[in-house]
DNA sequence: CAGCTGCCCTGCGGGC
DNA sequence: TGCCCGCAGGGCAGCT
């Protein structure tokens, strides 16, 4: 399940592989994943003859910048890009196929079909959903203790739920939220309003650190995540609580517990997080 | 209008 | 062995 560090690694590998390439043809095999424009044929035609300028990222969204358009891509849980030197072979989970002028291709593959694509006129992408709704990245200076404390005072929600809200901060998913709250020593069910400025400061610091460390490790390869060049991340070996239920807490050796918070599987140490 | 629930979708693993 | 059910979960529509 790609979160910010994994999406960033995919962005980097795509920049190495497809920047400067011109699209000969695009085929959409699963039309519901293309949200804008609604008509799949129109999407395919707009992309024809467009050259890839570069690929950027906002939160967990990737933006493929073309001559005249911006293609906003979200991988959700299982979305992956495969770059190939040839046109194929296409497998049964490839839902969008980009064929380039030089005979290479890019396959968007997604077993769960949850991923989305939006195509906007160049320069307008930030003014439309979904990007317009995003808060700052965790590695953005705007993600500060003051900002978070203010946001937390205005809500009745629990801290984990707030950190997963992409309009507050864009990039955390279930893995890095659990890791952040463990490192900060904060129980995920604490109400936002109950947190002191000092505690919020710890959450912001640890959140930024865990995201940076995971980016440095190329993300976490959990389930089926891979970059467009097939490379995997290494951070899954450095997770303290996510997926560690029953294993000893690295801090106090008591077993890590798995529970549910806001409908999400949640990993924590009841002794070290309060 | 903030916040919650259900839905999208498929593969996998546990239980019987 | 095979079937069924629950779970995984990000984001958004549609409720309250």
How would you characterize this protein structure?
The protein is of the alpha+beta class. The protein has two domains: 4-133, Alpha-Beta Barrel (N-terminal domain of MutM-like DNA repair proteins), CATH 3.20.190; 145-268, Orthogonal Bundle (Helicase, Ruva Protein, domain 3). Helices cover 25% and strands 22% of the residues. It has six helices and eleven strands. The protein has helices spanning 4-18, 40-47, 145-153, 159-164, 174-184, 197-216; strands at residues 23-28, 34-36, 52-58, 61-66, 69-74, 80-84, 94-100, 105-109, 116-121, 257-261, 264-268. Strands 2-9-5-4-3 form a five-stranded mixed sheet, with helices on one face. Strands 1-7-8-6 form a four-stranded antiparallel sheet. It has a two-stranded antiparallel ribbon with strand order 10-11. A hairpin with a 2-residue loop joins strand 10 (257-261) and strand 11 (264-268). Helix 3 (145-153) crosses helix 6. The two termini are 27 Å apart. 41% of the residues are buried. The chain binds a DNA duplex (16 and 16 nucleotides) through residues 1, 32, 60, 74, 76-78, 93, 110-114, 116, 129-130, 133, 154-157, 161, 164, 166, 173-174, 223, 262-265. This is Formamidopyrimidine-DNA glycosylase. Monomer. Keywords: DNA damage, DNA repair, DNA-binding, Glycosidase, Hydrolase, Lyase, Metal-binding, Multifunctional enzyme, Zinc, Zinc-finger. InterPro entries: DNA_glyclase_Znf_dom_DNA_BS, FPG_cat, FPG_Glyclase, FPG_N, H2TH_FPG, Ribosomal_uS13-like_H2TH, Znf_DNA_glyclase/AP_lyase, Znf_FPG/IleRS. It comes from Salimicrobium flavidum.
